[in-house]
């Protein structure tokens, strides 16, 4: 199809999900507002509403941070309580921002937002440098396995755009990051308020020759690029259209799921877990169309040469890459619920598409997120993170979270309320 | 055995990624819920949703029926389109009408001409109860409105259909929790992360048919502030209003009394996409009469059970 219009082609670099860490004081909401504004994702009518609200609250000019406070309950308190999702496109890539509140009591929100992020922007106020909060955010980003870290040193306008301030913060952060085991990070000096080095370069930071914040986002590898090579495909649903009017479908048995990592091709050997039975891939369908192969993050239907007894909750792997069955797990767990974790109760553990009962065998230590030290603990409250041992009623086939986020993560569900109460990362 | 060297640089296009993600969510709904239903109005978002459902479950027929809550104030061409599309797919289409709720006395109108948009919630809840649906799959998007920006992909509603923004279940990784107690239900939003532009690009890529009123056409309208109100038997011009015939299209299609067209020359998908990319008014801002009553009107309606 040809078109007389200039066409927004944004297919080239796919999609990137990122998280912004910081508090209102660091200018996080202003930064998001700036990104949306300078990539023209804020439309004129929204801007007018913002301007009117800013005037009503006695502010000069448009307060871009108002863009991100959503719920009435949040406006009353002047803070963000929950994760909000925002969208913009640069013309070459689509972005999903998970905006999580920065306060300590909202650790669970940051963990939630971080769980799907390909990149984290850690915001530092240039006047304050690396703070307790910065360390907490970096630790959580690292714990949640976010592959790319960008440290944005904000409010450079308030330190006279001083290169030495930026260099000192960079050194401080790297010292601390090395101690945590973080391999590297990118640094960019910005002023979200004035827009310097966010989307536009601006005249004030000419000593900085590196990429702008958006340039860093543009070249960051997407999730598919950072997933491991081992093939993992949890079965979500088995398609058996036996009642179909088409007799050709009476023996159809399609295993539906998403390729969480690795790749698979027609003819490849696969093993179903937990049964351990093997077969070969006869056909791969994506959207009902046959394909020779499939890769990470594609939703597929696999047809096998043999009729294996496979159902939801099973895991398809390559026979030579099968993860071992485990009924005991070592894990980091973030507690998300108001009712504390109880070692005497059973919880439902969701790992990929599989559910098994679990109970806590031992809490090894709780992590003090401010001092980043280990403390003994017998109980976990909301926003606590601990290392613990779990015992399962049936085995699961996990990978360590550090090598595979999709098959190393689990949630705990309280069966009496059906709430999601814990987020776990398997060691 | 074919040895594949997985390419570390392979990147799905943003539409391929969004499609795969939505299919994953649809399959989770069907994998976890006993009796889901897909809300299909014949509007563009639900047209995308229906295509995604088709692609998720091919070659099997859809594993759930379709449901439309008809306010009785819909454009006839959209209803005709809804029926045709459902028939084409061989899908079971359930239509329930706000009119029936009025007859039953569960919806009481303050005045007969008022918008019935908000009353859909009552009829929807009555239908959920009658059929025992435990999940309703809908085409809401987070970019539409700031209360939606914070809603989960699988969002729990209590027995009164109410959404409680402070009691949302944390949603991590792709581990969706669609568990319900009897009487509760899940609203599942597979295209949460899509923007208006993504929807139009997907419609173009999939060559999806749309009701004609999405494309530029001549229509009698009156100007109400910065918006246009269509002149229809339901929404006649008042004496002091001047009727103009303008070239317009609808960006969003819903109850006649609360959706407004925008002036547009865009009569092809390409032209609509170009306009959407350059738009200066948000979708709901330009076209809805019901979102402007207060800064948090969507949040209030959602708490009361609105989709």
Record the SSE blueprint:
The complex is a heterodimer of chains A (427) and B (307).
Chain A: E1 15-21, H1 28-38, H2 44-56, H3 72-77, E2 84-89, E3 94-99, H4 107-115, E4 119-125, H5 132-143, E5 148-154, H6 163-180, E6 186-189, H7 213-219, H8 223-226, E7 232-239, E8 254-258, E9 264-265, E10 269-273, E11 277-286, E12 289-291, E13 293-294, E14 299-304, E15 315-317, E16 326-335, E17 347-351, E18 354-368, E19 373-375, E20 385-396, H9 405-408, E21 409-413, E22 420-426
Parallel strand pairs in A: 1-3, 1-4, 4-5, 5-6
Antiparallel strand pairs in A: 2-3, 7-8, 7-15, 8-14, 9-13, 10-11, 10-15, 11-12, 11-14, 16-20, 16-22, 17-18, 17-21, 18-19, 18-20, 21-22
Helix pairs in contact in A: 5-6
Chain B: H1 14-32, E1 36-39, H2 44-57, E2 66-70, H3 76-89, E3 93-97, H4 98-104, H5 120-131, E4 135-137, E5 154-157, E6 185-188, H6 196-205, E7 217-224, E8 227-230, E9 244-249, E10 262-263, H7 269-277, H8 283-287, H9 297-303
Parallel strand pairs in B: 1-2, 1-4, 2-3, 4-6
Antiparallel strand pairs in B: 5-6, 7-8, 7-9, 9-10
Helix pairs in contact in B: 1-2, 2-6, 6-7
